Amino acid sequence: MTYRAPVPDIVFTMRHVAGLDRAVADGVYGDLSVDLAETILDEAGRFANDVIAPLNREGDRHGAVFKDGQVTTAPGWKQAYRAWAEAGWNALPGPVEYGGQGLPTLLNSACVEMWNAASMAFGIGPVLTMGAIEALTTHASDDLKSRYLDKLVSGEWTATMNLTEPQAGSDLAALRSRAEPAGDGTYRITGQKIFITYGEHDLTDNIVHLVLARLPDAPAGTRGISLFLVPKFLPDGTRNDVRCHSIEHKLGIHASPTCTMIFGDEGGAVGWLVGEENRGLACMFTMMNNARLAVGLQGVAIAERAYQQALAYARERRQGRAIGAAEGMSPIAVHPDVQRNLLTMKALTAAARAICYMTAEAIDRAHLEQDPARRKKAHERASLLTPVAKAFSTDIGMEVASLGVQVHGGMGFIEETGAAQHFRDARIAPIYEGTNGIQAIDLVTRKLPLAGGETVRGQIASMRATVARLLKEGTPAFGATAPRLRDAVESLDRATGYLLQAVSSNAQGEALAGATPYLRLFALAQGGTALAEMALAAQALAKAGDTDPAHAGRIALCRFFAENIAVGARGLEETVMGGAGFLQDANLALAG
């Protein structure tokens, strides 16, 4: 089934939840207008539909091929990438002084969703390059910027992020790669990195690796890590001492080469320090935070793709007779259980998209607001929302892709339909760029206490304001939306108070045990109230005479989410506040 970029839904979410109109009116986005943003997204949607999406199945079947140290991407991949870069899509969010267009993270986030929905294996490569651009723009020397940024911004070169080692996954304190000063301002890098996305490929002539390594006199742990720029080809055109040893055979995203990289076979790869010595993790986090939102958008993307395919199949597949239908078999899309699956897929996707776009808008304001106090507040809000955007969106990407297989029935388990590919591709997203368990721990232990808890309290107050507007409306079409979302927000508030107290009193076990259910609870309340904002906007537009039939659907979808999904908030609250007892008996339970 061919993907069609849902540009109207994307634009509606950007305008009525993420705050595109407000940001434009406030002057945050400079000369960008809503009309121009829509035009850009229409063009991006066409490229995703017509150029990238048709390659997705072939990329999955063919995969990336490793031979004699070289990686060859799937047929059509190189041509699609070059057309994509030449059209300026890589440069969309890049700094203007290095050839970028300087457009907002919010706009680029919508494009990232479309690239990844068209093909997740294609879309992940540019994500890393864009993250590297941000890291270099923020931390690199002027010399490195002038040498590398223009080619990275244009997409002529790509970039990678080299963190993970065989003995050091999420625990970067165990990192062993070394960097020896060469006495001429450069360093010699030695070590092995694994799981390096697009670490080797044939799409571009050069690849710029950002590598974490330790200096000889570095302190132990994460305080002793530095960041280095290590190009595949040196400025004089000679090959650097870095190579791809192998690529992984994976569950999904087969067309994206996941490489084991070896630095220093012949004495050490030449590298340049990015930022300060022993401050590499702070530099890399600039790249990782960018990537975490992008991976969240991958979750939205694969969910949207799986939903579109399941809906099309359900409308075509005839089996059984619906209640009240005439003679003959009915499309399975009219059967209540299938309808519930489809609505769950659509509602979760819409909620996750809204959270991701809200995060992107907060990131924009954190960079672009002129007032320092507003900029700081936006930064704190973006920090709070980022782990939710990453973890919830990738979790629902898996759930929605699984439901897509279910809607297809036995045919979903067969590779022929393509539903299985979405399920396989989605599985990596909750793992890379910081596992979702780590995102939950980050949310609870580091983000809830921001500004003494005022950041999260402010976010909950905003959710309450949305519920108050719903209660005031009292429209029959909303059903029990208002009371259900009110209950979800109040559950979130109580659980937040409990965890803030646990963190402040150093009750580490209680905080960590409740972290994952708390993140889900936060997302249900935030996602539900975001859908309510869309429903309220749709109702207002319909009352004003806008005849778009999608408005009634947005109200119905919000009601479904509130009455069928958000009701899980109370159980999550109880798990957060009373579920830590398992810690005492976990070893006993696991021993059997």
TrEMBL record:
<dbReference type="GO" id="GO:0050660">
    <property type="term" value="F:flavin adenine dinucleotide binding"/>
</dbReference>
<dbReference type="InterPro" id="IPR013786">
    <property type="entry name" value="AcylCoA_DH/ox_N"/>
</dbReference>
<keyword id="KW-0285">Flavoprotein</keyword>
<dbReference type="GO" id="GO:0016627">
    <property type="term" value="F:oxidoreductase activity, acting on the CH-CH group of donors"/>
</dbReference>
<keyword id="KW-0274">FAD</keyword>
<dbReference type="InterPro" id="IPR046373">
    <property type="entry name" value="Acyl-CoA_Oxase/DH_mid-dom_sf"/>
</dbReference>
<keyword id="KW-0560">Oxidoreductase</keyword>
<dbReference type="Pfam" id="PF00441">
    <property type="entry name" value="Acyl-CoA_dh_1"/>
</dbReference>
<dbReference type="InterPro" id="IPR037069">
    <property type="entry name" value="AcylCoA_DH/ox_N_sf"/>
</dbReference>
<dbReference type="InterPro" id="IPR009100">
    <property type="entry name" value="AcylCoA_DH/oxidase_NM_dom_sf"/>
</dbReference>
<dbReference type="InterPro" id="IPR025878">
    <property type="entry name" value="Acyl-CoA_dh-like_C_dom"/>
</dbReference>
<protein>
    <recommendedName>
        <fullName>3-methylmercaptopropionyl-CoA dehydrogenase</fullName>
        <ecNumber>1.3.99.41</ecNumber>
    </recommendedName>
</protein>
<dbReference type="Pfam" id="PF12806">
    <property type="entry name" value="Acyl-CoA_dh_C"/>
</dbReference>
<comment type="function">
    <text>Involved in the assimilation of dimethylsulphoniopropionate (DMSP), an important compound in the fixation of carbon in marine phytoplankton, by mediating the conversion of 3-(methylthio)propanoyl-CoA (MMPA-CoA) to 3-(methylthio)acryloyl-CoA (MTA-CoA).</text>
</comment>
<dbReference type="Pfam" id="PF02771">
    <property type="entry name" value="Acyl-CoA_dh_N"/>
</dbReference>
<feature type="domain" description="Acyl-CoA oxidase/dehydrogenase middle">
    <location>
        <begin position="161"/>
        <end position="264"/>
    </location>
</feature>
<dbReference type="Pfam" id="PF02770">
    <property type="entry name" value="Acyl-CoA_dh_M"/>
</dbReference>
<dbReference type="InterPro" id="IPR052166">
    <property type="entry name" value="Diverse_Acyl-CoA_DH"/>
</dbReference>
<dbReference type="InterPro" id="IPR009075">
    <property type="entry name" value="AcylCo_DH/oxidase_C"/>
</dbReference>
<dbReference type="InterPro" id="IPR036250">
    <property type="entry name" value="AcylCo_DH-like_C"/>
</dbReference>
<feature type="domain" description="Acyl-CoA dehydrogenase/oxidase C-terminal">
    <location>
        <begin position="278"/>
        <end position="443"/>
    </location>
</feature>
<feature type="domain" description="Acetyl-CoA dehydrogenase-like C-terminal">
    <location>
        <begin position="461"/>
        <end position="580"/>
    </location>
</feature>
<feature type="domain" description="Acyl-CoA dehydrogenase/oxidase N-terminal">
    <location>
        <begin position="38"/>
        <end position="156"/>
    </location>
</feature>
<dbReference type="InterPro" id="IPR006091">
    <property type="entry name" value="Acyl-CoA_Oxase/DH_mid-dom"/>
</dbReference>
<comment type="similarity">
    <text>Belongs to the acyl-CoA dehydrogenase family.</text>
</comment>
